TrEMBL record, chain A:
Function: Catalytic component of the signal peptidase complex (SPC) which catalyzes the cleavage of N-terminal signal sequences from nascent proteins as they are translocated into the lumen of the endoplasmic reticulum. Specifically cleaves N-terminal signal peptides that contain a hydrophobic alpha-helix (h-region) shorter than 18-20 amino acids.
Catalytic activity line of the entry: Cleavage of hydrophobic, N-terminal signal or leader sequences from secreted and periplasmic proteins
Domain Peptidase S24/S26A/S26B/S26C: 38-98
Keyword Endoplasmic reticulum among UniProt keywords: yes
Pfam families: Peptidase_S24
Protein name (database record): Signal peptidase complex catalytic subunit SEC11
GO molecular function: serine-type endopeptidase activity; signal peptidase activity
Organism for this UniProt entry: Friedmanniomyces endolithicus
Automatic annotation (TrEMBL), chain B:
Keywords, ordered alphabetically: Endoplasmic reticulum, Membrane, Transmembrane, Transmembrane helix
Biased composition (Basic residues): 207-216
Region (Disordered): 170-216
Pfam family, one: SPC25
Localization: Endoplasmic reticulum membrane
Gene: SPC2_2
Compositional bias of kind Basic and acidic residues: 171-180
Protein name: Signal peptidase complex subunit 2
Family of this protein: Belongs to the SPCS2 family.
Transmembrane segments annotated in the record for this chain: 40-58, 70-90
Source species, domain of life: Eukaryota
InterPro entries to which the protein is assigned, alphabetical: Spc2/SPCS2 (IPR009582)
């Protein structure tokens, strides 16, 4: 299998490596393109906890849209707690401001007993719509995101998958 | 030419091995390979990869908000470059596996296979003698278990294509060449000797039964 690579000219080897690099970079640029289109830093997120049951289960894939700045009560938003990189998916239960004043939101998980005030950063009582919110949920696909949860809980899976992909693309010449 | 074994059932492997052998053979015959088409493809491809890598680095270092505009620009640039890349591969390369020059004669070789058809279709465009298509089944130079045998492949090429036959007269069998193109002056039948015609003047006895059929 590898001897086939050894017989290649340097330019052809460069071409094979280019094939693999293009797979990675196209995937990445598609993701970035979607980010630009939705104006969200993370247009697709995976539900990590059961705090929104029965609406969303752990492992559901959510599609976000961040161009509507007038978020209403009852919309489901995804936000990052200031200083942490974990996205939280909860429902808006109160809003303050809006219009010319900056919009502030209070959220709560459907399956939680209390609102999110304890989850926010120290000293923070409300979410700032323009700064903290990544987007509102406009659609979802159930269960598909469980792979991502597995990949983050078992990081060696990521390396194994990438290595396998690299091998297949570089050695294949169809 | 290494003795690598391939799967004789995979049309892609048959074609790729033959394409590689063709390139090696022609380079061995001192055809100077013209790498422009491949270089352009590599340039466009790696340019787009560099843009993607730069976007990744900027995003990693500076975060989403700061790099939003640059990312938008980069995505558009990437899409354009990728489009150019695909266009180049489809329109310009068009199955070309070798372009080269030898003694002022420029040739361009493109290969093709058809689905479920174990035949090698070769289109050769030569500056001296125009364009020509030749075909042969892969079984001509592959054994049943997938080994590539260089000799019959080289003989087929040298006999069917004048430019290659001129470069490699050892492999160009007289009978087949005469069928395709009348002899050019350097390969005229020598009047003396045993009647074997041999352009390069080396011993022709090793060629076998076909040569001995020719009488003086």
């Amino acid at each position: 299998m590898f001897s086939a690579l050894g017989n290649l000219q340097p330019r052809q080897l460069a071409a094979q490596i280019l094939n693999f690099a293009l797979v990675l970079s196209t995937a990445f640029m598609l993701w970035k393109g979607l980010s630009v289109f939705t104006n969200s830093s993370s247009p697709i997120v995976v539900v990590l906890s059961g705090s929104m049951e029965p609406a969303f289960q752990r492992g559901d894939l959510l599609f976000l849209w961040n161009r509507g700045q007038e978020t209403q009560v009852g919309e489901i938003v995804v936000y990052n707690v200031r200083g942490k990189d974990i996205p939280i998916v909860h429902r808006v239960i109160r809003r303050f401001g809006g219009g010319s004043a900056p919009l502030q939101l209070l959220t709560k998980g459907d399956n939680n007993a209390a609102d999110d005030t304890e989850l926010y950063a120290r000293g923070q009582s409300y979410l700032d719509r323009s700064k903290d919110v990544i987007g509102s949920v406009v659609g979802y696909v159930p269960f598909v995101g469980y792979v991502t949860i597995l990949l983050s809980e078992y990081p060696w899976l990521k390396t194994a998958m990438l290595g396998f992909m690299a091998l297949t693309v570089v050695l294949q010449r169809e | 030419m290494g003795d690598t074994k391939i799967s004789p059932h995979s049309l892609a492997e048959l074609k790729n091995t033959t394409d590689d052998a063709l390139g090696n053979y022609l380079r061995g015959l001192k055809f100077e390979q013209d790498n422009t088409r491949l270089d352009v493809r590599l340039a466009i491809g790696y340019a787009s990869v560099v843009i993607a890598a730069a976007t990744f680095a900027a995003d990693y270092k500076l975060g989403w908000e700061a790099t939003k505009t640059w990312t938008a620009v980069a995505v558009v640039a990437y899409a354009l470059l990728n489009g150019a890349f695909t266009y180049w591969m489809w329109a310009v390369e068009k199955g070309c596996v070798f372009t080269g020059v030898r003694e002022g004669n420029k040739i361009s070789v493109a290969s093709k296979t058809k689905k479920h058809d174990p035949t090698y279709y070769l289109t050769i465009s030569s500056a001296n003698s125009g364009s020509k298509q030749i075909t042969a089944p892969f079984t001509t130079w592959f054994t049943a278990d997938g080994y590539f045998v260089a000799k019959p492949f080289q003989q087929w090429l040298a006999s069917s294509v004048e430019a290659i036959g001129n470069a490699d007269s050892k492999n160009a069998l007289r009978d087949q060449r005469d069928e395709i193109a009348s002899p050019s002056p350097e390969v005229e039948l020598t009047p003396q000797g045993n009647g074997t015609a041999d352009a390069s003047g080396t011993d022709g006895k090793a060629k076998g039964s076909k040569r001995s059929k020719r009488k003086g």
